[in-house]
Amino acid sequence: MKIKDIQVGKISVPLVKPFKTALRTVKSIEDVVVKITTDTGHVGYGEAAPTAVITGDTTGAIIGAINEYIKPQLIGLNIENFEEVMLKLHSSLIKNTSGKAAVDIALYDLFGQLHNAPLYKLLGGYRNEIITDITISVNDPDEMAKDSIEAVARGYKTLKIKVGKDPQKDIERIKGIRNAIGYDIKLRIDANQGWRPKEAISILRRMEDKGLEIELVEQPVLAHDFEGLKLVTDNVGIPVLADESVFSPRDALRILEMRAADLINIKLMKTGGIYNALKICSVAEVYNVECMIGCMLESKISVTAAAHLAGAKSIITKIDLDGPSLCSQDPINGGAIFDDYRITIPEEKGLGFTNISDAFF
Ligand SMILES: C[C@H](N)C(=O)N[C@H](CCC(=O)O)C(=O)O
Ligand SMILES: [Mg+2]
Fold this sequence. Notes:
Substrate binds at residues 24, 135, 160, 295, 297, 320, 322. The protein is an alpha/beta fold. The protein has helices at residues 52-55, 59-74, 82-90, 97-114, 119-123, 141-153, 167-181, 197-209, 226-235, 249-258, 268-271, 274-287, 300-312, 323-326, and strands spanning 3-20, 25-38, 43-48, 129-131, 134-136, 158-162, 186-190, 214-218, 240-242, 263-267, 291-294, 316-319, 337-339, 342-344.
């Protein structure tokens, strides 16, 4: 099964409502999609989210990386020697993890097809159903409470609340949500780097003192500030999850050696796809540290790949794969089934896509 062509296209999917974090506001998913064809007539699909404020990857940079650096390295290689294909992909250029992720995902789709099995089974086959949280954007407390009530009515048992925009209001936000939905629902909060270390400690301790029952706090401080992250981890009871601080397996190893966080958030757009995400899982297994699988604003192609990874690995215990649920429509045929909070991983070969429209390419 030799790689014959790599095509790049775009997908645009409006969100149900604007997605707001401490870093950005987005109204629609505008991602890059990849289609890899082989000499045997097989087709693999991938997707990259240009999340410039987190990964530094823009649409143009992703397309340029794939067409100018990755594609020339891969054409003619045989999927049967998957290790060689992965080594060539991941050494084709530095950074540009989202562009690499799109190609890596399409290659894993082909890898599954080559071996006649759904990818999650080839990677471990731990489970074929996972339960995701849903994100509540950072807005005025009243609006967030209303959005939380709606999410609970849809059956979500865990909400991921965006905070970190104006620190003093954050406690009010969480209090308002707790008052609105009670204590049967788990709340995880994500500051997206919005606090300074001492400010984070103060806010989180106040949340603890008020009994707001926070399951975990995601990336309270700046991504590069590993010492600041450790300061927070050492000084609050709420478990700290490293997100923007961990892109590579080396980042994960350093964070865990330092004991700078209690948990790691794996996202394919940060790792450059499944190949390196598996290495982070191994690092986390060594340290017995549980992981979250997360996503950027991604549609069903790359989130299906993340779901396969989560289905394979028991070290992934927390699921934040709500990208498709935030969308107002689903233009992708096949792949995982996103039934609100319940995600079912397909039993078809590879990632399980069927007839993705050529109009994207
Ligand atoms: C969509 C997902 N639930 C999420 O919240 N991801 C963010 C980054 C999303 C983005 O800005 O594209 C995160 O975990 O920080
Ligand atoms: Mg996050």
